[in-house]
Amino acid sequence: MTIAPQRVVTLHYVLSDRDGSVLDDSRARRQPLEYLHGHGNIMAGLEHALAGQDAGAQLSVTLMPAEAYGLRDEALVREVGRHSFPVEEVAPGMRFQTPGDDGPEIVTVLEVRDDAVVIDTNHPLAGQVLRYRLEVLAVRDATRAELAKGHPLPPGTDPGEVEDKKVP
């Protein structure tokens, strides 16, 4: 079956930076990625590269920063009050997840002062060229429940328990 909108794709990937350093490897974690094609579950550049591929396909994709996590924006580096953190000990390099305007965002601590913390809300991979090695394991039609939710559902999910908002 060919990858197209409304189909669930299962794949393994190895994500590397420009220099070839591995940043993530789904096979090493023994956890393939499953996504619903055409629903914005993965980066548009990856979705575009995967469209039309079949199970068994292996491909390499290089995404420039604008196609991946965006360019670094120095305006996203700012100082916040020390009281904004949920833990006593805060150190440079620590990361926290916090609600953002467009959903959860990762906050990286750059510097800790007596009464303030300098943070960076750029995605940790913003500004980086990313290289993916992809292997398509399976392609199947999405269920009505998956289309309603906009993403694959775990095996054994009772479709009757899924609120059907997206499909007429």
From TrEMBL:
<comment type="similarity">
    <text>Belongs to the FKBP-type PPIase family.</text>
</comment>
<dbReference type="GO" id="GO:0005737">
    <property type="term" value="C:cytoplasm"/>
</dbReference>
<keyword id="KW-0413">Isomerase</keyword>
<comment type="function">
    <text>Also involved in hydrogenase metallocenter assembly, probably by participating in the nickel insertion step. This function in hydrogenase biosynthesis requires chaperone activity and the presence of the metal-binding domain, but not PPIase activity.</text>
</comment>
<protein>
    <recommendedName>
        <fullName>Peptidyl-prolyl cis-trans isomerase</fullName>
        <ecNumber>5.2.1.8</ecNumber>
    </recommendedName>
</protein>
<dbReference type="GO" id="GO:0003755">
    <property type="term" value="F:peptidyl-prolyl cis-trans isomerase activity"/>
</dbReference>
<keyword id="KW-0963">Cytoplasm</keyword>
<keyword id="KW-0697">Rotamase</keyword>
<dbReference type="Pfam" id="PF00254">
    <property type="entry name" value="FKBP_C"/>
</dbReference>
<dbReference type="InterPro" id="IPR001179">
    <property type="entry name" value="PPIase_FKBP_dom"/>
</dbReference>
<keyword id="KW-0143">Chaperone</keyword>
<dbReference type="GO" id="GO:0042026">
    <property type="term" value="P:protein refolding"/>
</dbReference>
<dbReference type="InterPro" id="IPR046357">
    <property type="entry name" value="PPIase_dom_sf"/>
</dbReference>
<feature type="region of interest" description="Disordered">
    <location>
        <begin position="148"/>
        <end position="168"/>
    </location>
</feature>
<feature type="domain" description="PPIase FKBP-type">
    <location>
        <begin position="6"/>
        <end position="90"/>
    </location>
</feature>
